[in-house]
């Protein structure tokens, strides 16, 4: 991982020095070794702050929307799942392809910081985290110990379809293993519920929603110029936070991103109430893939199923 970071910094420094890009969106270390935060590199003196680690979880694609208008190329560091989101933004014509420079990175799978931190003595200070093959080594001021990497992966990484970015103008790091075919086991368990059990499950989940809009704000598929939930006229959604309005918000959003959700898992990650939004979106994704025989959005240039017409599409009216 240290070598990858060195190569990444060298490449970004070169791109800036040669004037190939005016800005690179990447990662820097956060408040502890299990956190990274977005970094916007504009000059050579900022390059050494760049990093990449098994905790570079954020999907940076959404930040491209802040640079839709302007001159010069924007560089962005992208994992495999992030690259699917970038492809979708290009398909939605939300960013001009000629102004984009994707720096793809080899991703070993991202770790769930909450699960990792739960293994540390609350009184110990975590100094660094090292990835050694299939082990995660936690180094604290009270010693070090190892964890099995597979047990602490983010859920989205356990069945990663694209360890190598599907779009990259530059690629940094070792060639990753081939992607996996999702089994959708958690969806199968959900589908085994009765209609009444499903309704009760989502009632319980949506009652927790505080309508902070974090899921919408982080989602690369939520890129409308004006969101229907922000409109006063027509009033699609009331301002009250209650079960009825929460259902309206969550289900409307799920349908808005249907066929465009790239399964990056950001909605799950940022929800402060731990609502399993990825379960909802994956259920819709699984159904669409089965009905229309299409891949996960963003893997290739297949048009979104709800934004394109094919004569062979399922037609229940016949």
Q: What report would you give on this structure?
A:
The chain has 318 residues and is an alpha/beta fold. It is 29% helix and 14% strand. It has a five-stranded mixed beta sheet with strand order 2-1-3-4-8. The protein has a three-stranded antiparallel beta sheet with strand order 5-6-7, with no helix packed on it. A hairpin with a 2-residue loop joins strand 6 and strand 7 (143-148). The longest helix is centred in the N-terminal third of the chain and has 16 residues, at 2-17. The model has no long low-confidence stretch (mean pLDDT 91).
Helix content: 25-40%
Task: Please provide the count of β strands.
Answer: 8
What order do the SSEs take from the amino end to the carboxyl end, as H and E?
A: HEEEHEHEEEEHHHHHH
Class computed from helices, strands and strand pairing: alpha/beta
Rounded to the nearest angstrom, the radius of gyration is: 21 Å
Q: Report the portion of residues in β strands.
A: 5-15%
Q: How widely separated are the two ends?
A: 56 Å
- Low-confidence runs (pLDDT<50, min 5 residues)? none
- Which of globular, elongated, flat, extended, rod-shaped describes the shape? globular
């Amino acid at each position: 991982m240290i070598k990858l970071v060195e190569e990444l910094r060298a490449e970004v420094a070169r791109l800036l020095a040669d004037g190939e890009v005016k800005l690179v969106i990447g990662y820097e270390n956060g408040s502890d070794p299990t956190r990274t935060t977005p970094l916007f590199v504009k000059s050579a003196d900022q390059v050494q702050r760049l990093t990449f680690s098994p905790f570079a979880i954020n999907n940076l694609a959404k930040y491209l929307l802040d640079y839709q208008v302007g001159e010069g190329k924007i560089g962005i560091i992208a994992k495999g799942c992030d690259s699917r989101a970038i492809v979708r933004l290009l398909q939605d014509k939300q960013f001009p392809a000629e102004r984009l420079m994707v720096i793809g990175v080899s991703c070993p799978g991202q770790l769930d910081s909450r699960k990792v931190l739960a293994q540390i003595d609350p009184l110990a200070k975590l100094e660094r985290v090292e990835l050694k093959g299939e082990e995660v080594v936690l180094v604290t001021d009270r010693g070090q110990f190892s964890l099995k990497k597979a047990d602490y992966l983010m859920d989205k990484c356990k069945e990663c379809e694209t360890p190598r970015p599907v779009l990259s103008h530059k690629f940094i790091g070792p060639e990753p293993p081939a992607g996996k075919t999702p089994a959708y086991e958690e969806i199968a368990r959900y589908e085994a519920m009765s209609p009444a059990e499903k309704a009760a499950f989502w009632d319980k989940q949506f009652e927790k929603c505080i309508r902070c809009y974090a899921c919408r704000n982080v989602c690369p598929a939520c890129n409308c110029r004006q969101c229907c939930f922000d409109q006063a006229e027509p009033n699609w959604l009331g301002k009250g936070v209650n079960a009825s309005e929460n259902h309206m918000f969550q289900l409307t959003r799920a349908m808005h991103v249907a066929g465009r959700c790239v399964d990056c898992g950001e909605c799950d990650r940022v929800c402060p109430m731990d609502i399993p939004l990825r379960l909802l979106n994956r259920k819709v994704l699984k159904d669409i893939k089965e009905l229309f025989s299409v891949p996960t959005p963003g893997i290739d240039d297949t048009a979104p199923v709800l934004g394109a017409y094919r004569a062979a599409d399922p037609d229940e009216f016949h």
